[in-house]
Amino acid sequence: MDRKDFIKSASILIGGTLSSSFVPGKQTTSKEYSLILKKSIGYGMIKEDMTITDKMKLAKDIGFDGLEFKSPVDSPLKEIVKAKEKSNIQLPSFINKDHWSKPLSSPDASIRQYTIDSISRSLEEAKVLGGDTVLVVPGVVNEKISYQQAYDNSLKSIRKLIPQVEKTGIKIGLENVWNNFILSPIEAKNFVDTIDHPLIGWYLDIGNILRYGWPEHWIEILKDRIFKLHVKGFSRKKMNDEGLWDGFVDLLEGDINWPGVIKELKDIQYSGKWMRAEVKGGDRKRLSKISGQMDKIIALSS
Question: Of 11, 28, 89, 283, which cross-links 18 as Cys (Cβ 3.0–4.6 Å)?
Answer without folding.
Answer: 11
